[in-house]
Input
Amino acid sequence: MRKSRLLVVLAVIGLLLSACSSLPRSGDVHAVNPSKNEAGSVALVGQPPPEGATPQEIVDYFLVACRAGGEDDYAVARQYLLPKTSAEWDPKTEVRVYPENQNITTTVTESGGVRARVGSLGTLSATGIYNESANNAVFTADFSLAKNQDGEWRIVSLDDGIFLAERMFFGQLYVEAPVYFLAPATESLVADLHWFPRREAPSRALHALLSGPSPWLRDGVTSAVPEDTRLTKNLQIDDGVAHVELSPNVLAIPQRQRSLMLAQVRSTLLAFSSVQSVQISVPGEALDKEVVLELSEYPYGSYPLSVISGGVPGTVVDQDEIESVPANPAFADLGLTDLAVAYQKPPSSYAALARSGTELVAIDGATGNVRTLTTGASLIAPSFDSLGWIWSGERSNNGSLTVSTALEMEPLTVAAPALQGMNVRDFAVSREGSRIVIVAESGGEVKTYVAGISRSSDGAPTSLGDLIQVGRRLADVTDVSWVGPTELMALGRSAAGSDTSLYSLRLGGPTGRAMNVQEGTAALTTTRASQPVVILTESGRVFERDASSWRNRASSVSSVAYPG
Output
C-alpha cells in the first residue's frame, strides 16, 4: 500500500460550552490504517487560543492542541499556558490513553479552576512503557488559570503529560516497538515491547536497546551490548537502509558476543517497515564482515496436539482418532489430569497431576512408564520449559515453586517470594524460557502476572523476578497460554457475570477480546498466533478454531496440551 501523509486540521469553531462541556471530537477526520510498526503517518495542526475565551474553553482548546503536539513540539499547546508554566510543563512525561468512544468532559470547580475527566485505558511512560488500567479506571486532571497581561485566561498549573484517544490518535501517533534482548539459556531473542512516537520510533528503539531491558525483565534476559556503548552519530535511514555507528568499545568484546549484539541491533530496527536492511559500523570501520546470526524471537516448531483420554496420555492423529502411549496398569489408579508435554516431536515426555492433584508424575511416551516427581497438598498444573524442566508447586503458595526433570534427581526449589500467600491457579513458561506468566488469586481478586526467570549457568531455574500485572481489564482468568513473543491468550471474563471469552493479553500493551468460545469451555492450549487455538469443554469435547468457526477435533477428553 502506498504510504500517505494526511493533514488533519483540528478546528474548534462554534463550540457550545456550558458549565459541563465535552472535548470536541467531530469534524472531517480522515484516518489511515497503518501497520503496527510505522507504515503511514498523520499530521495534526492545533489552533491558537481564541480571544475572549473562558477558562473552561481555554482548557478544552488546550486539550485539542495537545493532540497535535508531536508535529510542532507542542508549540501551539504552549500558547495556552503562561510563559513560566510553559517552560516547566513536560508533555512527554506521560500519555494518558482513553477510550475512543468517550469524550473528555470539563467542569468548573468551586475554586474557579477546571477539572478534566475521562475513562482510562492506560498510561505510556516517557520511556515508552505502556501500563494498562483496570476496568472502570478514570483519569482526572485539574487546571488552575489566571489572566495574562492582555487580560486573556491562560493555564498556570497543570499536570505533566497529555491525553490521547485510543485509536484515532494513540494508534496513529505511536507505534509498537519490540526491543530485543537475549534469553541466556537458549540465545533466543526476547522482545521488550515499547511504544514510541511514529517519527522517532526506530531511533528511540535503538536508544532503548542501548539502555537495557525494562526492570521487570532484567532477571530473565541478558544483552550482548556492552554497558558503555553509545551512538557516535544519530541513526540515519536512507532508502530503507538504517545506518548505525556505534562507539569503538564494541570492538573489544569477543567475536561471539559481538555477533549476538549485531543480531539484537538488526532485529530491533528491522521490526519497522521503514527499515529493510541495517548497516552497522564503528568510526572508520564497517562491521559488515561480522558473522550474522539468525535468532528466533519465538522458538516454537510444529507439534501434534496431546490429550488425556480415558485416563491415558496420547496424541490426536485425526478427527476423533487418538494414539495413546503404551498401556500401563498404573494409569487406572492415577486419575491423571492437567497434562503437559515436552518440546519434542513426536512427544516422548509427558507430565501430569495424579491422585487428585497431590502427585506430579512424569510419563515416558515411548514405554508408558510413570515416575513420581514430587507430592504436595494441591499442586499447580505442570508446565514444561524448552530446556526440559517441569514446573509445579503448591497452589496455596509459600513463596516458591519447584522444577523437576524426567531424570532421577530431586526437585529443585525456585524462589518466588512475591507469590507468598497467593493461590496460584495456572502458569506457563514462555517458549524461550526467560519469562513466566502466572494467574493467581489474592484478597478475592484474580490477577495475571509475568516475571523474569533467573537461571544458573547450567540453565537450572533459581528464582523469579518482580511480578508485573498484565490483562488488568479482566475480572477473572481460568487458563492462559503463550501465542507470541509478547502475546498471551487467556480464557476469562471482563466483568463478574459476563460471558467467558478468549482474550489477547499484551506484555506492555492493551488487552483485547479475541473470540467467543463454546459453551462450557474449561481450558485452552495454543501454539502461535498464526495457528488455531484449541479449547476443551466441560463435557470433554475438543474444538479447534478454523477461520471464523469452531471445528470438533476429539471427544471424551479430560485434558489438552501443546508443548509448554
Notes: The chain has a mean pLDDT of 90. The two ends are 38 Å apart (CA to CA).
